[in-house]
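Q: Could you write out the predicted structure for this multi-component system? I'm mainly interested in how the pieces pack against one another.
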Amino acid sequence: MPPHLRRSRAAAHPDDRHDPAAAVELRDVTKTYGRGDESVIGLDGVSECFRRGTFTAIMGASGSGKSTLLQSAAGLDRPTSGTVTLAGTNLNELSEDALTALRRAEIGFVFQGFNLMPSLTVLQNVLLPLRLAGQRPDHRRAEAMLERVGLSGFGHRHPSQLSGGQQQRVAIARALIADPEVVFADEPTGALDATTAEGILALLRGAVDHLGATVVMVTHDPVAAAAADRVVFLARGQIVGQLDHPDADLVARNLRELVAAAGGARR
Amino acid sequence: MNGLARASVRFRPASFAGTFVALLVASIVVMACGSLLQTGLTARIEPVRYADAPIVVAADQFTRRVIGNRDNREEIKAVLPEGARIDASLASDIESTRGVAAAVPDYAAPVSADRIGPLTGRDWSTRILDGRSGDLAEGAAPGPGEVVLEDASAATAGISLGDTVTITAADGPHQLRLSGTMADAPSDGSEPGAPTAWVPDGYAAELAGHPGEAEAIAVFAEPGADLDQVSSDLRAAVGPDVEVLTGSERGGVEAPSLPFARELLIGFGGSFGGVAAFAAMFVVLSTITLAVNQRNREVALLRAIGATPRQVRRMVATEALLVAPLAGAAGIVPGLLLARWWYDQLVERGAVPAGVDFATGPLPALAAIGAGLLAALAGGFAAARRPARTAPSQALGEAAVEGRSLSRGRWVAGAAFIALGSALSILTFQLDGDSAAVAAVGVVMIFLVAVALLGPAIARTATAVLGLPLRGGGAASSLAAANSTANARRLASAITPIALVVASSSVLLFIGTTVAQATEDDVRNGVVADHVVTTDGPGLPTGAVAQAASVPGVDAAVGILRTEVLYNGFEEFETADTIAVSGDPGALDEVLDLGVTDGSLADVGRGTVALDHLLARSLDADLGDTVDLRLGDGTIHEPKVVAIYERGLGLGQVLLPRDLLADHVRTAYTQEIFVSRSAGASPDHVAAGLQALDLPGASVTDRQGFSARVDGDLEIDAWSNRVMAAVFGGFASIAAVNTLVMVVLDRRREVALLRLTGTTRRQVRAMFRWEAAIVAATGVSIGGVIAVVTLTGFARAATDGLPSIPPLQGIGVLAVAIGLAFAAMALPSQALLRRQAHAGVE
C-alpha cells in the first residue's frame, strides 16, 4: 500500500467508468427489507465512491440508511439491486465463501460495541483475521499493532478486563492487522466519552495519514465527523449532500437541517 | 479452530457443564442397555448335570419359519413354550457309532408323593449323570413296579424297604414298591429342586406322559476318542432335526428357561435400549443446540470478521469432540453399575436363571462413547447451520433478538413427524399386546421430535394464550409474559424436556397399568366359580377333577390345563396363553363366564378352537375361518374358529380341546379346578371337603384369592415397566433440569439489568416463578396430550378399551414434572440474585 496521502476530490458521478483510485464503489445500490406492504427501503439508488487513502464520514438521522450503506459496502449484506465494487472486484459475483475470504483480507470492521471475542485474549483477538485466513500467528506484528494503538503490554488480558475505549482500540488494531483495503467503522465512538473518543479518532486519522489506510466511518457526532476528509449526508436512503474539509459547526448545522427536513417530511 | 474451540469451552463453564451432563446421562443409558444386550446375546449356562457327558443329543427347542419372498427371505424362530423331545430309541443308533462308549436317555418327570412332596422321577441309569453311581445305601435297583428313593425322602415319609409308595403323576397315582434307598447327594448345592425318585429305565418318560421319548441323550465317549469326529458322525447318524451339542451349548438343555431369559435381556437391552438411546441422542441434540444458540453473537462476530461457514461449523465440531469423549468415558462405570443392578434384580425375581453370567465388554463402552459423539456432532452442526450460513449483518441483527419465524424446513419436518406419529398410532390398532407396547413407545418418540422441531411455534402459541392473564397482573408476571413472547426459542428448549418427562413416564407406566387393569377386570368378571383349587406342586392329576365333582355340595367342577401356543404375529412368532378344559364341558358356564359373543364353547372339539376377540382381531379371523397355530411343542395345528369371547386376558386367549393338548405339553397336569356350589350348600363345608381331597400341593381359595394369584403373575411385567419408567423418566428429568439451568444461568446480564433498573429481588424471583409456570403448564399439557393419544391407541389395540391410569400415579407424574420446572428455574435464579446488583453487566 503506497504510503502517500490523496487529497479528496468531488464525488464521482454515477455514470463515470470505474475509478481505479476507488477503494470501494457503490453504483445505484438499493436495499429493501421485508416484503410487500411491510417493506422498508434501506437504501434507494445510492451511488458513491470512496477513494483510497481517504477518511470519509457518513452521517444522517436515525433510519436514514447509514448502517445499511456501511454493511452493503463492506459486503456484510447483499444489496437488492445495484453493484458494489471493492478492490476492483464486483461483490455480487462472489460466492459466500469467496466473499468471506475477501472480507478477511481486505476489510477491517469496527463496531460500536461487542467487537471482541470474550473468550480470547487481546492478542488472540487482534490475530483473529489472520488465523481465520489460515496464516501462522505473527505475534510480533500483533504486538506492533497494539503498540500503535497505545496498548502495548495488554496482550494477555481478556476483553472483560478492559475499558470501553481500550476495547475499541483493540478492535482497531484487529481491523488494521491484515493491511486491508478499507476499514469500516460503525459508530466507533458512540459509547465513549469525549476524551477517549478523541483518542480513537486520532488513531483512525493516523492510520489514514501514516499508513495510507482508507476509512469509512458512520457517526452521528459532528466532532467525530470533523476528523474526516469528507462528510456524506444521508436521508431516506439517498445521498443528499456532502461536505469537504468539514469543521464541527458546519457539520452540526447541516445535520440539524437534515433532521428537521426529515421530521417535516414525515409530517 | 482448535484454540478457539478450547478457549470458548473454558470460558463458558455453565454451558460446558450442561452439555457434559446431557452426554454423560446418554452414555450411562447406552452403556447399561448395551451391557444387558451383550449379556443376553452371550448368555449361556455351563452344564452341571451333563458336565461329564461331552456330547448331548437333544431336540431343537425352537420352532422356525421362513418369511418374506424371493429376494429377502428371513428365518424367524421362537422358543417352544413346552419344549421338544426326541425319540429315546435313538440311543441305540448313537451307541453303535464309533467312539461312543454309552448313550443314556434322560428324562425328568415332575411327580409328587404323599408326605414327601414334589419329586423328580428319573431313570435308574441316569444316576451316572448325578455323579451318584455309587452303591445303594440299602436294598436293590428298581425293577418293574418298584422305586428307589433318597434316604432322606424315605425317612420323611416314614417308610422302609418293601413298603408301597404312592407316586402321583399327571395321569394319576402309581403304587410303587420301595426297593432301595440311595445315600444322600453330596452337597454341591448346584442342583436345587425336588429330590429324586429312581424308576426302571424308560419309566420316567411314562410318568411324564411321553412314553418312548427322552428330553436329552447324554453321550459318553470312549477314552482317546476324537470328540469332533464323534460329533460329526453322530450328526450324520441322527439326521437334521435333532441337535448334537457340545461345550457350553449343553447347558442350554439343562435350563429350559434360558431362551426366555435371553429374549428378555435382549428385549431390555435392544428394544428398550434402542428407544432410550434415541431419546438420549434427542436430548443431547437439543442441549447442544441450546449451547450453540447461546453463543449466536460470537458466531455472528466471527462471520463478520471473516470466518467462513465451514470454519464456524468446524469450531463447533471441535468443541463437540472435546466434550463428548470425556462425558462418554465418564458414563461407563455408572452405566455398568446400573446394568449390574438391573441384572441382579432380574435374577432375584427369577426372570433370568442363576448361572447366566453378566457380560459386558468394550463394545457397549464404545457404543456409549460413539453415540454421544455422534449426537454432539449432529447437534452442533444442526445448531451452527443457520448462524453459519446467514449473511453476517443479519446475524448481527438477530443475535441480540431472536429470529422471527421458523424456517419452512422445520414446519414441513414437524408436520411430517406429526403425520408419521398419527399414522403409526392408528397402525397400532392392528397390533397385539407386546408389539403394540413397543409401537406405543415409538409413537411417543416421533411426537416428541415433532415437538422439538415445532418448539418455537408451540412456545409462541402458549405464551399468547397464557400471556393474556399474565399481562394483566403485576410487574413480575408481565415481565414473564414479555420475556417468554420475545424469546420463544429459549422457551421452547425448556418446554421440550418437560414434555419428554411427562410423555415418556406416562406411557411406560400406564401401558402396564392398562393391561393389568384389563386383566383384573377379565378375571374378576370371568371367574364365576365359588371355589378354586390351585396348587404349588407340579400340578393336579387327571382324576382330581372327578374327585372334586364328587365332593358333597359341589354342583360342577371344571379343570383347566394351561399352556401356550404360537401364532404368526407381525414378522415374528407371538405366544398366546391357552387353556383346555376337562370335566363336564357343559358345566363350563357355571364356573367361567368368558363372555362368548359369537358361536358356542360347546362346539370346541377336534379340529376346532375358540379365540379371545382381541386375538381374533389380530389374526383377522372370524367364525368359520381357519387359523395357523403351533402348539407348545411345535406341532402345526390349523383349527377352525367356532367361538369368539371377550374375557381372554388373564384367563386364556385360546381355548382348545384337552385331548389334543395333553399330548403336546411337557406334563398334562391340571393347573386349577374351578368349582361351583349347589344352591344351599355351605361354603365352609364345600371348601373343607375340597381340602380333604388332599391333592398334592393343593390349596383351596375363592374368587378373590384367585384374582390375587393372577395379579402376582403380572408383577414381573409391572416391575419391568416401573424400572423402565424410572430409568427413562429419571434420564428425562435430568435432561429437563439441565436445560432449564443452562437457560437461566445464561440470563446473567438480563437479571443484572433488571436489578439495576430497579426490580427488587422478590420481583425477579416472582418473574422466574411465572416463567416456570408457563414452562410447566405448556410442557405438561403437550406431554399429556401426547401420552393420552398414544395410550388411547395402545389401549384400543391391547385391551379394546380405554387406558387405565391410577390417579395417584398420574398425579405423581404431573407433580414431578411441575416440581422439576420450578426447582430448575428457581434455584439457579437464586444463585444469580445473590450477587451484587451490578455484576454481570459489562
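A: Regarding packing and overall arrangement: The radius of gyration of chain A is 18 Å.
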